[in-house]
Amino acid sequence: MGRKLILSLVSSVQQGKELVMNKHFVNGLRSILCDSSLDKEFVAKALTLPTEAEIMDLMEVVDPDAVHTARRFAVKEIASTLRKELFDAVKNNCSNEAYVFNHENMARRALKNVSLGYLASLNELEATGLALNEYNTTTNMTEQIAALAAISQNSGDLRTKTLSKLYEQWKKDSLVTNKWIA
């Protein structure tokens, strides 16, 4: 469904039409996000929109600007509409415990990171502060990179400083440096 939604929005961008978010799609995401009986990994995957590259792979004639505009619109609309639920997901899935590699913790981190990414797209002080706090306090690279990705969505001094900080911290590790470049 996410692919169809984005492709429809791409078409609207290309035709110069006003972008309108499908409310049923967003309400479906809300239902999934608020259903505590669901596995958190499933919820995280269900909330994840296809990447720009995935959308472009589906197009006969690729229009990167339209794809970027459409996907960015969808992310911000979802974040704006589900703001409270996404904040709750981040807060309910933060942990200061030591990193543990198991399904439960991986799923918790995935849901928190996806939610944080949506919220950071709004470029609001509260969401940006939450992402920066995650970046500064996390005890593992997965969460640090996710917080950095959230912060990096918006241009400005915070993005520049955070990217520089990560580079300084990990510049001797080529694997991390490659992630930083990405």
Automatic annotation (TrEMBL):
<protein>
    <recommendedName>
        <fullName>Peptidase M1 alanyl aminopeptidase C-terminal domain-containing protein</fullName>
    </recommendedName>
</protein>
<dbReference type="GO" id="GO:0008270">
    <property type="term" value="F:zinc ion binding"/>
</dbReference>
<dbReference type="InterPro" id="IPR012779">
    <property type="entry name" value="Peptidase_M1_pepN"/>
</dbReference>
<dbReference type="Pfam" id="PF17432">
    <property type="entry name" value="DUF3458_C"/>
</dbReference>
<feature type="domain" description="Peptidase M1 alanyl aminopeptidase C-terminal">
    <location>
        <begin position="4"/>
        <end position="181"/>
    </location>
</feature>
<dbReference type="InterPro" id="IPR037144">
    <property type="entry name" value="Peptidase_M1_pepN_C_sf"/>
</dbReference>
<dbReference type="GO" id="GO:0009507">
    <property type="term" value="C:chloroplast"/>
</dbReference>
<dbReference type="InterPro" id="IPR024601">
    <property type="entry name" value="Peptidase_M1_pepN_C"/>
</dbReference>
